[in-house]
Specification:
Elements lengths: L4 H34 L6 E2 L11 E10 L5 E5 L3 E5 L4 E9 L5 E10 L7 E6 L5 E3 L4 E10 L14 E11 L3 H16 L1
Parallel strand pairs: 1-7, 2-10
Antiparallel strand pairs: 2-4, 3-5, 5-9, 6-8, 6-10, 7-9
Amino acid sequence: MALAGPQKTAAQLVGVVFVMGALAWASVPFYSWFCKVTGFGGETSVSDTGSDVILDETIKIRFDASIDRGFPWEFKPVEREMELRIGETGLAFYEATNTSDRPIAGTATYNVAPFEAGGFFTKIDCFCFTEQVLQPGESVLMPVTFYVDPEITTDRDAKFVHRITLSYTFYETDMPEDYAALNSDVTKDTDIN
């Protein structure tokens, strides 16, 4: 049975709305996957181990830090810049201090500039992989272990990169459930005594 006139148009419109909704729903995970695979938008790679190849050629890594507006932490790199051989494992530290009078959880987002270098900047371990909780007035040093993949020297666009900037921004997040449960148990014990 073939649809005629207005029924066919209505069916086509429903189909278009369905397809557009499906594309909108899939766009965020697809974009995230695309950025991780290509390094687009400064997305970095992740590895369990360092590079097997270390070149004599060096590259400068600059470290940048910022916080979300109203977020009561101080956050800065311990060292602003380092130079290392391409493929060599680097270790950098960022310092964070909770300047408020309450425990605060934070999560860091990151990117690499220029964007062409994103797929070649590889993190082995990073404080940005997990949520951080700081007590009032607490300061911590947070490490990031990384290397620049030697394949950067053969990439059509990235081979001209001689300086990479690694940027982090901290945002406040909800307290982890296990942390909130632990604190409520401590409060109950204090109230009983």
